[in-house]
Design goal:
mainly alpha; 4 helices
């Protein structure tokens, strides 16, 4: 299976969101070792960004495990707008 460039870019965007959330968690001496636990933490403690985070998570799973060609650069643009909201929210929460 050959993944498209857009699918790889979406996967990278998701892992960027993971690192942003982990930076926030580290300042609270928290660390979630699984996606499931991290998703629960985002839903519970970062609810304003939970929808964007969940959408990136699901898209990254589609990009990695589903049939090739399901995600496009249009999807990437939409999802990275969500990533920007995640980064802005966490940046404000860290102040």
């Amino acid at each position: 299976m050959a993944r498209s460039s857009a699918e790889w870019a979406i996967t990278i965007a998701f892992y960027q969101a993971v690192h942003v959330v982990e930076a926030w968690a580290a300042l609270r001496s928290q660390h979630d070792r699984s996606h499931r636990r991290r998703n629960e933490t985002v839903n519970r403690e970062l609810s304003p960004i939970s929808e964007d985070y969940a959408e990136l998570y699901e898209a990254s799973r589609t990009a990695r495990y589903a049939a090739d060609g399901l995600l496009t650069w249009t999807d990437f643009d939409r999802l990275t707008a969500g990533l920007a909201r995640i980064e802005a929210h966490v940046r404000a929460a860290l102040r």
